[in-house]
């Protein structure tokens, strides 16, 4: 079978040899201009005047643009929303785009942008979650998930605990920065090459800015050098600015952000603050949870509502919570507008119960693993707080595999023995069970289209609405089409995503890329295949059932003699017989529905499960720490491509590890981000990956729902497995106090924070 095979990424060789073409590698037509943004240096204020006269007079400058030059709407956030492409009357954060300078070379554009003079009357600013909460400054009204009677259940619970902690945001650090290249055509038509996860939104935003119909703008995306959620909405402004400049100058315009500007201007993962109270019985069974999750939304709405909803629908994680209230606040600050980032609020949501269960275990003097298992959802019986049944529950299986494969019982004994004789270095073991909901939590986004052509030489061209950002979506969808026609994958050419080929698409996000586009492509290919069968059956006067596609050929079984021809030969015959060999395909996810106001429904087609164990070592004199080993099991259903999925799991885990340990965003007291490059913002390197790194797909776990070839999504869920590293760090720190006291450990658990936690424990 072509599906379920470990085939390499279709661009693997090009990636590793530097031959894959990213937008900045494309040949530039003569006359190409380069653009640079002018950014606000003030976090909040009234924009009195923009003086671009010096910039306009600088060498090589061809044009400058402000809000006043926008022929359509100065809006990049969709109808009814309020995110201007260029600030006009107010600025809302340091890094907000105010103007664009376009010049003959990139250096000229960037030098000229520095000459812009902005007259801003500084206003009051909010730079942190506490202040926003105190002033009730929100980008949307608070939302609540409620089940049962948490107040009464809390009151009558034999034990109660409360705690507070926080987690920071995260920079996407895609290797290819935000970029767009806009090429004007005839009659105002425009083609924009954009590094975006959401070509259709980019199309809409460009048209909205230019004041033209959507059919005038075509967005093309061959590949992204990483997106991780950072190019789901944030690519639109970049493309919109390039489109404006190209339309106004009539010349090709490229806008590429240098790393520092990219980090200052674009949104990140939402940092969160948590407060909660948990009620439980003497066994450690949770009876009630009352939690507040306050997210730093930044200055505008962006996708914060969806992120809050996903955080609230993941507070339960793997655990049955009979009575629960979880309130999500979307705090408005004068900082970058935070956005999608792998996990989309899910990683932030699950931290609450992991903190609570560790504290419950300490309180009762019980094993933190046993307490987790005790609270697991029961398969097919329990419902989540938002009313979705937890079906096909693989928690116990995943956990059993990690416990056994990771030899956890033995290693914990070893670690305890080590800690007894090691006063300075302490080791810790952390575990984490995972349940992650798959589907966009906005039901209408769960749709996809594809377009397949079969040519008369038997070669196949494949297009669909999903974008390739390194995750291996293209090879997976190629595998699906190869499986339908029973041809070799070399026969199939995946092509750049384009709004002109498949329109009205959803972003490639929420891990749904292969679920949605896989089915859409299957539908398109199968439509053509059925036409070929119908034609062959008539042409060869044979029953449709007797026509078999296999190994790149088509066999027509006839009494006495079988006829065999190549796939291409049948394609040619079909053409002669005037049969269409081109088809669209469409898919919409069944069963999902969601009432966003009541926060109830079935937002997810299915859940994906997993489990992780991580071992860390902490130097109690410096707070420095390392991950020594990780054992992961991830449910990918019947994986479409196990080697791609293993890569996704490893990458996601290390990215999650970075979020929870070393990646620290730091703003100064004026709200200026000071961690704007790899020297100050530390992403994990190859040597931070666990030296012992055992990653397994859960076997024999085909999805019970009708997913494409019974596979499951993989893009985001394994990022959450890195929670085990955070748990392990607390476990190691608590060894300083012989595991009698629970510690607060805010994330990212940098050496400073680890050291501070140790100091608190010692005092
Ligand atoms: N893998 C790579 N190499 N690069 C990326 O940008 N993005 C992640 C994940 N894996 C990403 C990645 C995110 S945030 C999502 S939602 C999914 O891929 C999107 O792709 P999929 O739905 O096809 O899995
Ligand atoms: N994930 C990513 N993007 C989204 C989602 C989601 O769940 N919902 C709406 N946009
Ligand atoms: Mo992924 S955060 O849904 O792009």
Cα gyration radius (Å)? 27 Å
Count of individual helical segments: 19
Q: Name the bound molecules.
A: ligand MTE, hypoxanthine, dioxothiomolybdenum(VI) ion
Classification by helices and strands: alpha+beta
Mean pLDDT: 97
Please give the order of strands in the largest beta sheet. Answer: 3-5-1-12-9-10-11-20
* Percentage of β-strand residues: 25-35%
Low-confidence stretches: none
- In this structure, how is the largest beta sheet organized? 8 strands, mixed
Shape: globular
Detailed description of the structure:
The protein has 19 helices and 29 strands. It has 763 residues and is α+β, with helices and mostly antiparallel strands. The protein has an 8-stranded mixed β-sheet, with helices on both faces. It has a 5-stranded mixed β-sheet with strand order 7-15-14-13-8, sandwiched between helices. Helix 14 runs parallel beside helix 15 and helix 18 (723-734) runs parallel beside helix 19. Helices cover 29% and strands 25% of the residues. The structure holds ligand MTE, hypoxanthine and dioxothiomolybdenum(VI) ion.
């Amino acid at each position: 079978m072509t599906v379920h095979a470990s085939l390499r990424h279709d661009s693997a060789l090009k990636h590793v040899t530097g031959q894959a073409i990213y937008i900045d590698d494309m040949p530039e037509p003569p006359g190409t201009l380069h653009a640079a943004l002018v950014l606000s240096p003030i976090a909040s204020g009234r924009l009195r005047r923009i003086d671009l006269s010096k910039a306009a007079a600088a060498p090589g400058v061809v044009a400058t643009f402000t809000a006043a030059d926008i022929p359509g709407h100065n809006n990049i956030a969709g109808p009814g929303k309020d995110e201007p492409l260029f600030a006009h009357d107010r600025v809302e954060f340091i890094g907000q785009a105010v103007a664009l300078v376009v010049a003959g070379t990139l250096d000229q554009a960037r030098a000229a942008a520095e000459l812009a003079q902005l007259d801003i009357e500084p206003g009051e600013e909010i730079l942190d979650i506490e202040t926003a909460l105190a002033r009730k400054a929100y980008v949307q009204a608070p939302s609540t998930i409620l089940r049962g009677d948490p107040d009464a259940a809390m009151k009558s619970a034999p034990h109660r605990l409360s705690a507070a902690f926080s987690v920071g945001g995260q920079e996407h650090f895609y290797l290819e920065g935000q970029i767009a290249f806009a090429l004007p055509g005839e009659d105002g038509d425009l083609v924009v090459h954009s590094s975006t996860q959401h070509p259709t939104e980019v199309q809409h935003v460009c048209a909205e800015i230019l004041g033209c119909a959507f059919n005038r703008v075509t967005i093309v995306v061959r590949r992204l050098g990483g997106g991780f959620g950072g190019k789901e909405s944030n690519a639109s402004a970049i493309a919109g600015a390039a489109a404006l400049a190209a339309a106004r100058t009539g010349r090709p315009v490229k806008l590429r952000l240098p790393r520092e500007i990219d980090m200052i201007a674009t949104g990140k993962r939402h940092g969160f603050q948590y407060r909660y109270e948990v009620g439980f019985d003497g066994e450690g069974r949770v009876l009630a949870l009352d939690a507040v999750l306050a997210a730093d939304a930044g200055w505008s709405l962006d996708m914060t509502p969806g992120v809050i909803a996903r955080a609230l629908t993941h507070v339960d994680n793997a655990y049955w919570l009979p009575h629960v209230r979880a309130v999500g606040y979307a705090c408005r600050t004068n900082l970058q507008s935070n956005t999608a980032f792998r996990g989309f609020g899910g990683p932030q949501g699950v931290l609450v119960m992991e903190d609570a269960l560790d504290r419950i275990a300490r309180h009762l003097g019980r094993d933190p693993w046993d307490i987790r298992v005790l609270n697991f959802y029961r398969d097919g019986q329990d419902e989540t707080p938002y009313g979705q049944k937890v079906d096909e529950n693989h928690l116990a299986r995943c956990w059993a595999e990690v416990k056994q494969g990771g030899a956890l019982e033995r290693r914990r004994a070893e670690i305890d023995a080590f800690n007894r004789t090691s006063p300075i270095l302490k080791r810790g073991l952390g575990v984490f069970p995972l349940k992650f909901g798959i589907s966009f939590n906005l039901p209408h986004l769960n749709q996809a289209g594809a377009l397949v052509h079969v040519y008369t030489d038997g070669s196949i061209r494949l297009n669909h609405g999903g974008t390739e950002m390194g995750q291996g979506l293209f090879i997976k969808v190629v595998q699906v089409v190869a499986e339908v026609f029973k041809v070799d994958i070399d026969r199939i050419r995946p092509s750049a995503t384009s709004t002109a080929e498949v329109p009205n698409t959803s972003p490639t996000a929420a891990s749904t890329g292969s679920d949605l586009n896989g089915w859409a492509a299957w539908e398109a290919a199968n439509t053509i295949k059925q036409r070929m069968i119908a034609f062959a059956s008539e042409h060869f006067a044979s029953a449709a059932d007797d026509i078999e596609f296999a190994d790149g050929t088509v066999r027509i079984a006839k009494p006495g003699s079988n006829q065999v021809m190549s796939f291409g030969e049948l394609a040619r015959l079909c053409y002669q017989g005037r049969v269409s060999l081109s088809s669209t395909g469409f898919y919409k996810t069944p069963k999902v529905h969601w009432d966003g106001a009541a926060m109830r429904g079935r937002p997810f087609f299915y859940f994906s499960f997993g489990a992780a164990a991580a071992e860390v070592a902490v130097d109690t004199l410096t707070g420095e720490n390392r991950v020594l080993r990780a054992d992961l099991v991830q449910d990918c259903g019947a994986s479409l491509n196990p080697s791609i999925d293993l890569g996704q799991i490893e990458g996601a885990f290390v990215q999650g590890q970075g979020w929870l340990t070393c990646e620290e965003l730091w703003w100064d007291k004026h709200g200026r981000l000071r961690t704007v490059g790899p020297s100050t913002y530390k992403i994990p390197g190859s040597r931070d990956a666990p030296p012992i790194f055992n990653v397994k797909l859960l076997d024999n776990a085909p999805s019970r729902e009708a997913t494409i070839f019974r596979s499951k999504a993989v893009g985001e869920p394994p990022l959450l497995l890195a929670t085990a590293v955070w748990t392990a760090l607390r476990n190691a720190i608590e060894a300083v106090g012989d595991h009698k006291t629970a510690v607060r450990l805010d994330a990212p658990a940098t050496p400073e924070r680890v050291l501070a936690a140790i100091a608190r424990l010692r005092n």
